[in-house]
Amino acid sequence: TKIAVLISGRGSNMQALLDAAKDEDFPAEIVLVASNRPDAAGLAVAEAAGIATEVIDHRDYEGRAAFEEALDSTLKMYGPRIVCLAGFMRILTPWFTERWRDLLINIHPSLLPAFKGLHTHERALEAGVRIHGCTVHYVRPEMDDGPIIGQAAVPVLPGDTPDTLAARVLEAEHKLYPQCVALACSGKARVAGERVRLQVREF
Ligand code: GRF
């Protein structure tokens, strides 16, 4: 299955997908890494790995509609079946998310539906939760919402700061995202209504 990865920054989740895809048993091939920011560090990493990269700079477009049309046409040129958001920091409109319905996957650094939006680690610490984590889900028009493919939990430890907690969650993200992308690409995580039906015994 051909996949594209959309980034805006560091791209460590993209790197995790890239590493996973080196295994010939991994059911996805990364055909494109695209960024809305020309300075995204992940672009150089992808290039060094020999993956095609594209920049669709949102500042070059008048409004979200024009930006998303450009993004959509770029994706179409590479023909991915599934598109993975990996630290992609632009809100997508329903036009785009419906066009890619059930084909667009996101990773979010919290156990959804808790802590949608930004600054999840600060907010988890403020809320005093003892378990935190990350979620991979199919994208719906509402932000950080949609059928859940998988989640990974990490403990919140005494003395944690947003940074130490973020690092622990990020490590879990790097394992979870490739696993979930593999499930989606192999057809073992299919959307049925507003839930994902998993065809695996254990996960
Ligand atoms: C990750 O924590 C991801 O869950 C969030 O943004 C961060 C991106 O990190 N949406 P990276 O660019 O993949 O390193």
Tell me what you see in this structure.
With 203 residues, this protein is an alpha/beta fold. The protein folds into 2 domains: 1-100, 3-Layer(aba) Sandwich (Rossmann fold), CATH 3.40.50.170; 109-136 and 147-203, Rossmann fold (3-Layer(aba) Sandwich). It has helices at 12-21, 41-48, 63-78, 94-99, 120-127, 162-185, and strands at 2-7, 29-35, 53-55, 82-85, 104-108, 131-138, 148-155, 189-192, 195-198. The strands form 2 sheets. The chain has a 7-stranded mixed beta sheet with strand order 3-2-1-4-5-6-7, sandwiched between helices. A two-stranded antiparallel sheet has the order 8-9. α1 links the parallel β1 (2-7) and β2 (29-35). The longest helix is centred in the C-terminal third of the chain and has 24 residues, at 162-185. The chain starts with a strand and ends in a 5-residue tail after the last strand. The mean pLDDT is 97. The structure holds 5-O-phosphono-beta-D-ribofuranosylamine (GRF). 5-O-phosphono-beta-D-ribofuranosylamine is lined by residues 7, 9-13, 86-87, 107-109, 170, 173. 5-O-phosphono-beta-D-ribofuranosylamine binds at residues 7, 9-13, 86-87, 107-109, 170, 173.
Topology (elements, then pairings):
Layout: E1 2-7, H1 12-21, E2 29-35, H2 41-48, E3 53-55, H3 63-78, E4 82-85, H4 94-99, E5 104-108, H5 120-127, E6 131-138, E7 148-155, H6 162-185, E8 189-192, E9 195-198
Helix pairs in contact: 1-6
Bound molecules: 5-O-phosphono-beta-D-ribofuranosylamine.
5-O-phosphono-beta-D-ribofuranosylamine is lined by residues 7, 9-13, 86-87, 107-109, 170, 173.
